[in-house]
Amino acid sequence: MKSFAYKATSSIGEAVATLDQAKGAAVPMGGGTDLVGLMKNRIVTPEQVVDLKMVDGLEYIRKDASGYTIGAATTVADVQYSKEIADAYPVLSQAASVIASQQIRNQGTVGGNLCQRPRCWYFRNTQTPCLRRDGTYCSAVLGENKYHAILGGAGCFIVHPSDLAPALIALDAKAKISGPQGSRTVALEDFFVLPKEDLHHETILKDNEILEEVQIPAPMPGSKQVYLKHRIRQVWDFAILSCALQIQVQGNAIRDIRLVLGAVAPKPWRCHTAENILRGAALTPENVDRAIKAELAKARPMTQNAYKIDLAAEMMRQALLG
Ligand SMILES: Cc1cc2nc3c(=O)[nH]c(=O)nc-3n(C[C@H](O)[C@H](O)[C@H](O)COP(=O)(O)OP(=O)(O)OC[C@H]3O[C@@H](n4cnc5c(N)ncnc54)[C@H](O)[C@@H]3O)c2cc1C
Asked: Is the pTM of this model over 0.90?
């Protein structure tokens, strides 16, 4: 690991000022469960690490008039064990409980989970060319690509690894971002970017900004929420594919729906096409199959990952009709 300076900042203002002064040579750290591995492998080689866990008042789960707010330094375990979150947002609670291992959930933060870097084995290995790092081509195209993207890849075919992100997008969460000029709030869906927008970053964050909190509105009244995750091992493992759903049904008609797939694309994949077909329609197997087929018609599998199309279809069917 390259040597670096450790900076424990006590306020958000001090943290972003430190990042700003470093002009790209400093990185924020939550629990370090991802960042330290990246530094050991020299994928990331900062001069300075700014510890956000030392910032006062960045670790909270708060209820307000419009819903809940979760501070970026809140641990995944705190979300997992929050009764209030489990009652209001089962999809989030379920997602938090299947992340990695209990030790990583105790240490890893919500901010770190949303901002974690891709798990693509070519990205994580400095010996193999990687377009996202600084290479001239993506090794996955002609290489091992069974866990790579079937949607939204363009040049680079990483999948977004976060379990919290699809669940929070299904809940219509917003991201509050803090920088030297103040703060801004964006829909969490728009926090993430595809390679065609930015090949080297997974989020819209600039080098001198941090994710401060996520804001979750009240759930759709009477909604059903579910998070499904398929992984090779039942513990300690990233999703091969995941599916987050919030759906509101009145009578047999779907009044509102938010459906998001994880691990199929370089960002959490909101299924707008399927949602538009299902909104206002009856919740029947025929309508569900039609919506799934239309959504997945956009999929462009690589040489080894066409199975993800069938898996995605089955998981959406289970979430909607199970
Ligand atoms: C063995 C293993 C298994 C795992 N399995 C899963 C899994 O199944 N599902 C899953 O979702 N995750 C999984 N993870 C990832 C893990 O959940 C994340 O590493 C953890 O939540 C990240 O949190 P952290 O606070 O430790 O992030 P850190 O390691 O501190 O940071 C991760 C990245 O986010 C940036 N960052 C951190 N906080 C902020 C912030 N507030 N604003 C801006 N940037 C920030 C850092 O600069 C860094 O680039 C796994 C990790 C390991 C090591």
From this structure: yes
Report CA(250)–ligand 1 centroid distance (Å): 38
Q: Please state, in angstroms and rounded to a whole number, the distance separating the CA atoms of residues 71 and 182.
A: 17
Beta-strand pair 174-179/224-230:
unpaired
pLDDT of residue 236: 83
Q: Which amino acid is at 283?
A: L
Q: Using H for helix, E for strand and C for coil, what is the string for 280-304? A: CCECCHHHHHHHHHHHHCCCCCCCC
Q: Best mutation site among 35, 106, 119, 200 for ligand 1, i.e. most ligand atoms within 8 A of its Cβ? A: 35
169 C-alpha vs ligand 1 centroid, how far in Å?
18
DSSP 202-271: SBS--TT-EEEEEEEEPPPTT-EEEEEEE-SSSSS---SEEEEEEEEEETTEEEEEEEEEESSSSS-EE-
d(CA 151, CA 157): 9
- Three-state DSSP at 62 gives strand
Q: Assess contact for 200 and 232: CB atoms under 8 A.
A: no
Domains of the chain are 5-53 (3.30.43.10), 57-115+159-217 (3.30.465.10), 224-321 (3.30.390.50)
Around ligand 1, the residues with Cβ closer than 6 Å are 27-35, 52, 72, 76, 99-100, 104, 107-109, 111-113, 115-117, 161-163, 205, 210-211, 236-238
How far does the centroid of ligand 1 lie from the alpha carbon of residue 75, in Å? Answer: 10
- Compute mean pLDDT per 10 residues along the chain, 322 residues long, and list them: 96 97 98 98 97 95 96 98 98 98 97 98 96 95 97 96 98 98 98 97 98 98 97 89 98 96 98 98 98 98 98 98 94
Q: Please enumerate in sequence order all residues whose Cβ is within 8 A of that of 60, keeping only pairs 6 or more positions apart, or say none.
A: 69, 70, 71, 74
